[in-house]
Amino acid sequence: MKYEIAIPEFAEGAEEINLRQWLVAVGDTVKKGDNIAEAATDKISIYIESPADGVLSAILAQEDDRVLVGQIIGEIEG
Amino acid sequence: MKKDLIWIDLGLISYEDAFVIQEQLHKKCVTKTCPDTLLFQENYPVITLGRGTHEQNLLLTPAELLDQGIALTAVSRGGDISYHGNGQFIVSPILHFDQYVKGAHQYVRCLEQVVINLLAHYQLKGKRIKGRSGVWVVEPETGEDKKVSALGIAVSHGVTLHGISINVNPNLDHFKAIIPCGIADKGVTSMEACGCPPISLSDLREQFILAFDEMFGTHTTKSTIDEIVSHKR
């Protein structure tokens, strides 16, 4: 089953959000709740958690990309 | 009903030692084995490099910093480069922010408002400047807007880390080692440089807690790090 990784709703209101870095690579095994990516506004670092146990199967946004709340940035195959 | 928080004051401590404690508290807070916490500290002189640091904002070499007794360390908060040192009030709220406000952005703005309200208690008029985080005052001597309080937070597993610093009476010359927060055209000041009589950090802490509790609808009581480390539920 495929699970989408999204920029969390709690980042709503920030003028600009950048995907700072991926903390795992495609093919890596992750557990639900692991921090797998980091996004940032001008004053807030936001750690993005894996939505499920599985393997990071796709990266849909690259480091330094500007991203939006709710945007799907990757997928977990679980 | 008001939500109960605790506060812990680490006193004067190195940034690194305090951050180890902060991470331990964060883990406990995530697993709800300790209450949401306001962690206070004062650091020995250190320059911290946030995740958004631009190298050109560090104006001295590590060796030159060492000569001035200033350490250098990379940190996990957002934002650019910052200085911390004696005479600076630092508070890191470690809490499930979404239980108090809607969204991380609103949380940051509420923290800024707590600082503005706190400064008002000391007859200082703090303000925001559009597009720039932190709290600013007009420095009487120059008539210029200067930053008196910086802010940078991280959110992991729904719980915040890092927080706010307020310049009470730090050595402002130390800020010349950096372009604080990457803002080149605005300077940094302190409460004392703006005419405040000497303030103890413990008095400021008491006033901060009052202002925080009023803003977030909380009830914050004292604890110690030993009580939390041994805390079990």
TrEMBL record, chain A:
Domain named Lipoyl-binding: which ranges?
A: 2-77
**Name of a matching Pfam family:** Biotin_lipoyl
Task: Provide the top EC class.
Answer: transferase
Q: Which gene encodes it?
A: odhB_2
| Enzyme Commission number(s) | 2.3.1.61
- UniProt name for this protein: Dihydrolipoyllysine-residue succinyltransferase component of 2-oxoglutarate dehydrogenase complex
> What cofactor requirement does the entry state?
(R)-lipoate
Quote the Gene3D superfamilies the UniProt record gives: 2.40.50.100
Q: Which GO terms describe its cellular component?
A: cytoplasm
**InterPro entries, alphabetized:** 2-oxoA_DH_lipoyl-BS (IPR003016), 2-oxoacid_DH_E2_comp (IPR050743), Biotin_lipoyl (IPR000089), Single_hybrid_motif (IPR011053)
Give the UniProt keywords, A-Z. Answer: Acyltransferase, Lipoyl, Transferase
Q: Which PROSITE patterns match?
A: BIOTINYL_LIPOYL, LIPOYL
Please give the Gene Ontology molecular function terms for this protein: acetyltransferase activity; dihydrolipoyllysine-residue succinyltransferase activity; lipoic acid binding
